[in-house]
Structures are given as structure tokens and as C-alpha cells.
Amino acid sequence: MRIPYLLLKTEMKRVLLSLGFADDKADTCAGMFADNSRDGVASHGLNRFRVFVDYLKEGLVTPNAEPTLVNAFGAIEQWDGRFATGMLNARLSMDRAITLAKENGIGCVAIKNTNHWMRGGTYGWQAAEAGCVGICFTNTTANLPPWGGTEPRLGNNPLVIAVPKKGGHVVLDMAMTQFSFGKLWQYQAQNKALPHPGGYDSEGNLTTDAAAILATKRALPIGFWKGSGLSLVLDLLATILSGGNSTAAVSKNGRRETGVSQVFIAIKADDEQNEALINEIIAYTKTSAAIDNGEILYPGENMLRTREKSMAEGVLVDEKIWEEVREM
């Protein structure tokens, strides 16, 4: 079903206020959840809201805590998230990185003791809207077996790279698993097969069955061994730069996925000089013959269409989940 964007945001804000959020934090947080669903990422929008509420009730997220600056080294800062809302911590971190980039050409903010940032692409868009190239990544709890292994020891450690572009920014937002766990849960709930193999079943065979992959905990890394290696390196960087928890530490702390480490980098861009180069690269990419009369899209292009449709016709939501939130 489709519902108006404002109604979606208002309902989630109501729930957050009832759980002790200050009004401004509740408004911002509810807006970010609603934005994710509006842009077609329901797995980290309305569909993830119930999990977020559970974390609040368990005391894993401190709603009104404020992150604090720990160290500053020129264009680099380290922050302690103090287990505050991950989305708000991430937004503040990228904002600081943008400020540092405006002053120094580049800015890097690493934050420890923070929580799930929901849709990582949000902070890539934030940087691009400010005229900066944005790069950010996070570690997670162990949910991905290393290449050659059968037990999760790596995180799916999402990576975001954003490049500002007039008419629609280029924003790559990807996990180190072939399918994010939000997508796996979505396909499982809908009892649909994945469009491509996303992991292994109980017999060690590649499968498109999301339920089987979730049961074995053997998701497939992107690019096989390459994704496994990239996941490890991102965890190393997030841990070293923030001075916070690694995937191993997050997995062993017994607090589910909380206290993660994240990095936010902003690079000041020259819009006039770069615009022609960006358009040339995209135009050339699109000259490739498409499969089955399909369309070649750059990362983030289809999201703008989804956003426009959501604002015109209403945000697409799962009716059952929507009713559960309304009853909270």
C-alpha cells in the first residue's frame, strides 16, 4: 500500500517521542527513516524501525546522548558516539567532515561507540549536496564468512562513495555481501527467489533461496575473495582510525550489533571543472548495448525516480508492518 510521506514520518516520530526522544531528535530520526522508505530502501526505513525500537527498549541505543570530540589532528577528528542513535551520530560526523573539507580541502571524521547508521547512502548524499565527494564506511557484527571459511568472522561492512553531479548525484552504496541482509530478509518475507545467487545452502551449494542463506549464515561476498579482502581492510581502517571496536569486538560483546566504528571522509570538489568530466564518463558508459532492451543506470539514478513517485503517489509500505508501527 502507499501512504503519504508526512503521515509515515509523523507516526514514527510519535513512537520515538513515547520512548523518550527529545522533539528535535525524534523529528530528525523519524525523517531519516521515512526518507529511506521514500527512496525505495524500506529495508532500512519502515521495515527496520521495529528493530530500532527493540534496541531502544533494551537500552542498546541511548536516545538523547551527545557524541563528544576525543582528538583532533588538523583535518582529522576522532569522536566518541556514546552509544547514541547511529543515524544522528553519522549525520553529525559527515557534517564535521564537510566543514573540515571546506577548510582544508579534505576532512576525515572517525567515530567509535556508535550504532547502526541504517542507509549508508544517506551520508553520501549529504556530502554531495554540500558539493563534496563523500566516502564513508562502517564495520558490523560478524555476519560474513571469510573466503575459504564457513563461519562468519567478517562484517558485511557497507561502503559508500558519492560524487556530486548536477541533476542527480552519483552515489554508490553497497555492502560487502552480494545482497544486504535487509534485502535477504525482504526476499525471505516475500517468499521470492533472489535474482542471483547470494550465498550457500546447507549442502554448500550456491543458492537464490534467501531463507536458506540466512539459516546457514553463509552469505556470498561480492567478487568472492575480493569482497572478503575488502571487508577485512575496511574493518581494519574503521577500527584503527576511530580507536574503537573491531568486528571481532562487536561480535564478542554480547550486545548484538552496537558499539560499531565508522569513518566519514569529505573532499572539496570543483563543480565547474568536474561536471563535464562526470557527464562524459556517464554518457560513454550508457553507450553500451543494454541486455533485453533494458536501461543502463549509474548508482543513485533510479533512486531519484523512486523518490519522485513516492512524493507524488505516496510511499510504498508493507501493510502489516505499517499496522504494527501504528499500534506501538
TrEMBL record:
Entry's EC annotation: 1.1.1.130
Gene3D superfamilies recorded: 1.10.1530.10, Hypothetical oxidoreductase yiak, domain 2
Domain of life the protein comes from: Bacteria
GO molecular function ontology, one term from the record: 3-dehydro-L-gulonate 2-dehydrogenase activity
Pfam short name (any one): Ldh_2
Sorted UniProt keywords: Oxidoreductase
PANTHER family: 2,3-DIKETO-L-GULONATE REDUCTASE, OXIDOREDUCTASE-RELATED
Name under which the protein is recorded: 3-dehydro-L-gulonate 2-dehydrogenase
The organism of origin for this protein: Mucilaginibacter pankratovii
Classification lineage: Bacteria, Pseudomonadati, Bacteroidota, Sphingobacteriia, Sphingobacteriales
